[in-house]
Amino acid sequence: MEKTFVMVKPDGVMRQLTGKIIGYLEQKGFKLVALKMLILDQALAEQHYAEHVGKSFFPGLVDFITSGPVVAMVWEGPGVIKGVRELMGATNPAEALPGTIRGQFAVAISRNVIHGSDSPVSAEREIALYFKPEEILAYTRPTDIWLVE
Ligand code: IDP
Ligand code: MG
Q1: Minimum-distance ligand 1 atom for the alpha carbon of 118
Q2: For the whole model, what pTM was predicted?
Q3: Ion ligand 2 residue ranges (Cβ < 5 Å)
Q4: Whose atoms come closest to the Cα of 122: which ligand?
Q5: Does some domain include residue 18?
Q6: Has residue 57 been placed in a domain?
Q7: What's the gap in Å between 145 CA and the centre of ligand 2?
Q8: Less CB within 10 Å around the terminal CB: N or C of the chain?
Q9: Tens digit of pLDDT for each residue in 117-138?
């Protein structure tokens, strides 16, 4: 089954939005299969955001993402990679549609509360950055028969 990497960023944790964000993905029907709380060090932050090295916002982004705890997760479900991106809303919360996580909970691009992998290649890379294979759980929910054909 398709998997993606999702992270509640330090602003989301500090603003006590973790439960709401997890609840939002749970209500949709996606399955939480791995979760940990951690504070990123410089090296992990630079690896996580490797594609943005050299951009003007990169130093600020690394400072921010290492500034407090994050909640790192793996979510599973049909179309979960694109599905989570759509539920997150646009990168800039000013452009995120009402009803999306960023549309509801954020106003600034540098404080947009959630990260989600943007492609299958990113998902695989990001999951491996944060989780060992044995930390990703396989289980059946009683609701699976009502959610997945
Ligand atoms: P994404 O999080 O929607 O995938 P990316 O383009 O991958 O967006 O950028 C990673 C993160 O870097 C964004 O979530 C945002 O927090 C931050 N960011 C992106 N563009 C800017 C910018 O122009 N100024 C400040 N921060 C930015
Ligand atoms: Mg991105």
Answers
A1: 4
A2: 0.97
A3: 118
A4: 2
A5: yes
A6: no
A7: 32
A8: C
A9: 999 999 999 999 999 999 999 9
